[in-house]
Amino acid sequence: MSTLIGRTAQAEWARIWSVRSSWIFAFATAAAVLGIGTMIGLDASSGPPPDGTAWDGALPTGFFALFGILAWATVCSTADHTSGGIIPTLQWTPRRGVLLVARATVIAATTAVVGLLLVTAAGLVIWAIVPAVGAPAGEAAGLIGRLAFVLTSGALLAVGIGLLTRSTAGALVTVLALMLILPFVLAQLSLVYTWLESIAAGMPGSSALYLVFGEGPYEEMTTTSARITLVAWVVGALFLGGLRLIRGDADR
Known about the structure:
Layout: H1 2-17, H2 20-45, H3 54-58, H4 61-83, H5 86-92, H6 96-129, H7 137-165, H8 168-189, H9 196-201, H10 204-213, H11 223-247
Helix pairs in contact: 1-6, 2-4, 2-6, 4-6, 4-7, 4-8, 6-7, 6-11, 7-8, 7-10, 7-11, 8-10, 10-11
């Protein structure tokens, strides 16, 4: 079984990097993250010495990395279904559970690692522009640890929703709404309709923002509750998406 999963994972890795869209997403995300990092560094160099470190400056770039990772993971998970390539894929890997494990693992690991490398690079760019801020290794480890959980969870959520909808457009809209749009909209509406606070806090995007920035739309949010919420969404999405992959017709 492990050999089969390993072979399927290698095929998934090759599939990701054999399509043009993956390179486009990687370069576009890199341009956004490094560009924002450069702007933050230049802005810090032209004013009074900032109180934080280079990693504090790099923190906002994680938001742009998350946006790129979500879109990239979504497209990777739906590409086979939109192109019809899922048929030969399942002929080569008839055990759909194996395909599910390999696909989710490879897509999430690949996109999350790229995102982490880019945010780290953005921090180093800020440090190079403003050496006075410093770049403590301990803070780098803390930043990478928080972002690793958020980016990996976001990518897995995108894979699950992609497998469930089998539509690139539908999955993109759903993922971006859950992670980036609804949390902000509901947070604003909750100023008028207070009962929306609980719904806003239950959005995966709210938990992601809290884990990265330490702030959320709901005062009673904690690191533990945010992690549990993200994990629950990921498990639910992968369960439903995996159920459709395993039991549903591949071409429907």
